[in-house]
Structures are given as structure tokens and as C-alpha cells.
Amino acid sequence: MKIYVSHSREFDFKNDLYKPLRESGLPVEFILPHENSDEQYDSKLLLERHGSDLVMAEVSYPATGQGIELGWADAYKTDIVCFYKSGSTPSSSLQVITDTIIEYVDERDLVNKLTQALKLNYA
Predict the structure, then answer these.
(1) Among residues 68, 54, 57, which one has the least CA distance to residue 13?
(2) For a disulfide at 78, which of 11, 13, 45, 73, Cβ 3.0-4.6 Å?
(3) How do residues 52-75 score in pLDDT, each as one tens digit?
(4) Which residues, in sequence order, are bridge partners of residue 104?
(5) pTM to 2 decimal places
(6) Hey, what domains does the chain have and what are their CATH numbers?
(7) How does DSSP assign the chain, residue by residue?
């Protein structure tokens, strides 16, 4: 399974998101758009070509670009799972594109809840 990871740039995503996902040991291929480059990633082309089975969106921080990506994912019929950190308030508009919006406390909890979501919906 290939999972495209969508997020805002308004936090330390390399340490707070990418690192725990890479270290999770989950048997999936994470597509981390800014792991090795700050250049614009062509997520529209990826989603258009169905190059991702799932979009995992970290939605704790509002981001216009991420909203566009999630719109593309929805339009191209790619499943979306949203996660937000406890204490933040994700946009209520997310309910239009997914039924799966999950709160997490820390990086360990994020990985545990992603693992559970994958087992429940994609096993």
C-alpha cells in the first residue's frame, strides 16, 4: 500500500511526522513529499495517476495548499484519513471529503491510531 502524506509546512513535519512514520515499521510505502526537497511536489499528477492508495492528512494547521491536495484526492477517488493533534481544531469542511478524522496526543499515539485505521479499513 502506498500512502501519500499531506500536511502544512507550519510545523516541524520532518521530526514530528516523517520521522515517526519512517520508524513505525508499518508495511506500507510512505510518500513524504518534502523529505528530501523543499521544492513543490506534483501531488496532482500522483493522485491523477492513482499513484497512491490512501492520503494521510495531518490537518492540525490550516493550509490552502493542503486543501487543494485533499480536493484532488477526493476528485480522483483516493481515500483520505485525517489526523489532528489534540488541542487543535481541524476545519469542519473535512467532513465533506472523509468520515475518518482522528485525534492524536503525540507521535506514538499517531502511529498507533494510523495502524488501527489501516487494520480496520484496509486489511
Answers:
(1) 57
(2) 73
(3) 999 999 999 999 999 999 999 999
(4) 85
(5) 0.95
(6) 2-122 (3.40.50.450)
(7) -EEEEEE-SSS-HIIIIIHHHHTT--SSEEE-TTSS--SPP-HHHHHHTT--SEEEEE-SS--HHHHHHHHHHHHTT-EEEEEEETT----GGGGGT-S-EEEESSHHHHHHHHHHHHHHHH-
